[in-house]
Amino acid sequence: MIPKRAIFHWEGDPMGGLRRRCIERFRSLNPDWSVVVLDAKTAGAPSNLLPPQRSDWSRWIELYERGGYAFDTDMAFARPIPEWMLETDLAMPADGENVNAVCVMGAAPGHPFMALMNKVARETYEKGWHTYQDFGTLLLWRSMGRATGGEQHARIGQACIALELKPPLLFPAESFNPIRWEDAVNALDRPQPPYAGMPIAVHWYGGANGNPDAAQAGSWVEAALVYRDEVAE
Questions:
Q1: Which of 81, 98, 102, 224 is most buried, by CB atoms within 10 Å?
Q2: What is the CATH number of domain 5-232?
Q3: pLDDT digit string (tens) for 82-91?
Q4: How far apart are CA 37 and CA 9, in angstroms?
């Protein structure tokens, strides 16, 4: 079982108001969860990494040591995390045939796959591979054996079988990523959310195209937050 424990990370410049609202919304929607926000002092990854790299690796360390769900801070939560996402030992989003998103990942404490990811992260760090996604999506892929496309589902299952584990829960990426990152800036100019239905959260890609806190996000991100307020009333 995955514990009801949400893990975020932020360091560097003060957290923007929109990100703070997103974390506050998570707390209000999930009152029985504990919420951890790692910072420069509590993050476990080496301090000479860039904040996005340190954020990813530190959350994988935290998942291995204490378990829970790791989330990005640029996610506007619209619904509570469902119980079925906790009834497993390892969980990650799948986009069609690809396991290619790390904005949300869950694991039970001490999970061997998270141990493997942290081992690969250490190897990556020692080799000096420090690009943006080297401790994010690319790290996940390396941990699966660089599988791509439809092979990813099989490879993540094979990786778990090799560790004598059951395969992970693969949930639809659209439940947290209703739009793709390359559409994020255009979406900010739209008056209504560019997605159908109501996902669990809306990942608004705060770092996309030099927009670290989505200053102009008065449209679809705010709409996701306001929508939930209106439904509650």
A1: 224
A2: 3.90.550
A3: 999 999 999 9
A4: 5
